[in-house]
Amino acid sequence: MKRVKLIVAYDGTNYCGWQIQINGLTIEEVLNKYLSELLKEPIAVIGASRTDSGVHAEGNVAVFDTENRMPSDKICFALNHRLPDDVRIIKSEEVAPDYHPRRQNCVKTYEYKIMNRKIEVPTLRLYAHFCYYPLDADRMREAATYLTGEHDFKSFCTPRKQAEETVRNIYSLDVEKAGDLITIRIVGSGFLYNMVRIIAGTLMAVGMGVYPPSYMEEILDARDRNAAGPKAAARGLTLVSLDYEKEPKKEIRGENKEWSYTLSQEEIVSQKKAYLTIHRCRQEDFDRLLIRVVHQAVRNGAERVYVKDEEMSGRILLDKSYGFYNFRSDDENEEWLVTEK
């Protein structure tokens, strides 16, 4: 048995998104069907990003397990001969048996394209959202600056489940205009359900003059979906790439007006240890931050996470469970608390 990784590109126009569902054809269903026929065994792919109906992709990722002896790097060529014209495998390769595309640290890049002119161009209608109202790209660009960094993006997602963690980190958010085409390019650690489309819709509202650019900060603070603008149409969105980290970052910093912390991971590989220093954190966000960052360190390979709260002593309770974790005092240094599962 081996595990094979696929880089998948597709035109999402004729599909009801990635994930298999009862109301229409999906990318996952197509891949399962043609892989099963090619390899002469039942195949079920695991996708990295579950794109919505009508959303396109240039570099989505999926894996599957097979006992077939066909070389992994040749599967893409054989499969492309069978797939419909709007789905292609860019690359196939063997990966570790425990490799999971949704349990790896990665950088995701999306682009949202807007055709901003009086009359729609038919050849672009499936790949760009048409907006006849003039958009001020400079205002949109200024508004985008408020969203970069680590924030709670609850206002910019469609709720699916109450317990979903809504903090995400946007590394860059650019708005470029070339002729009549505006491209919003967003790069981040991950995105919530409909998050990119709601950001695009809100930026368009800023470009129309509905909101001032600074209103983006108020939307973030509200943590309420009703505070943000409309969700933009799916056809303008493309998942460009998923770039996976080969090893954990030595240090991760998170900082905004609600919190500031440093996670040191220099000893994760050698000693399975990580150190979290919370410099400051608003009380209502404290437990969530503690659980989220400790879990990130454990997922990255830490067996023990040492935590120090610089702002207030006694906030971490030794008799309280924080998600999967609780804490005890460190025998060697009383400033630190150490996790116990």
TrEMBL record:
<dbReference type="GO" id="GO:0031119">
    <property type="term" value="P:tRNA pseudouridine synthesis"/>
</dbReference>
<comment type="similarity">
    <text>Belongs to the tRNA pseudouridine synthase TruA family.</text>
</comment>
<dbReference type="GO" id="GO:0160147">
    <property type="term" value="F:tRNA pseudouridine(38-40) synthase activity"/>
</dbReference>
<feature type="binding site">
    <location>
        <position position="110"/>
    </location>
    <ligand>
        <name>substrate</name>
    </ligand>
</feature>
<feature type="active site" description="Nucleophile">
    <location>
        <position position="52"/>
    </location>
</feature>
<dbReference type="InterPro" id="IPR020094">
    <property type="entry name" value="TruA/RsuA/RluB/E/F_N"/>
</dbReference>
<feature type="domain" description="Pseudouridine synthase I TruA alpha/beta">
    <location>
        <begin position="7"/>
        <end position="100"/>
    </location>
</feature>
<comment type="subunit">
    <text>Homodimer.</text>
</comment>
<comment type="function">
    <text>Formation of pseudouridine at positions 38, 39 and 40 in the anticodon stem and loop of transfer RNAs.</text>
</comment>
<keyword id="KW-0413">Isomerase</keyword>
<dbReference type="Pfam" id="PF01416">
    <property type="entry name" value="PseudoU_synth_1"/>
</dbReference>
<feature type="domain" description="Pseudouridine synthase I TruA alpha/beta">
    <location>
        <begin position="143"/>
        <end position="245"/>
    </location>
</feature>
<dbReference type="InterPro" id="IPR020097">
    <property type="entry name" value="PsdUridine_synth_TruA_a/b_dom"/>
</dbReference>
<dbReference type="InterPro" id="IPR020103">
    <property type="entry name" value="PsdUridine_synth_cat_dom_sf"/>
</dbReference>
<dbReference type="GO" id="GO:0003723">
    <property type="term" value="F:RNA binding"/>
</dbReference>
<keyword id="KW-0819">tRNA processing</keyword>
<dbReference type="InterPro" id="IPR001406">
    <property type="entry name" value="PsdUridine_synth_TruA"/>
</dbReference>
<dbReference type="InterPro" id="IPR020095">
    <property type="entry name" value="PsdUridine_synth_TruA_C"/>
</dbReference>
<protein>
    <recommendedName>
        <fullName>tRNA pseudouridine synthase A</fullName>
        <ecNumber>5.4.99.12</ecNumber>
    </recommendedName>
</protein>
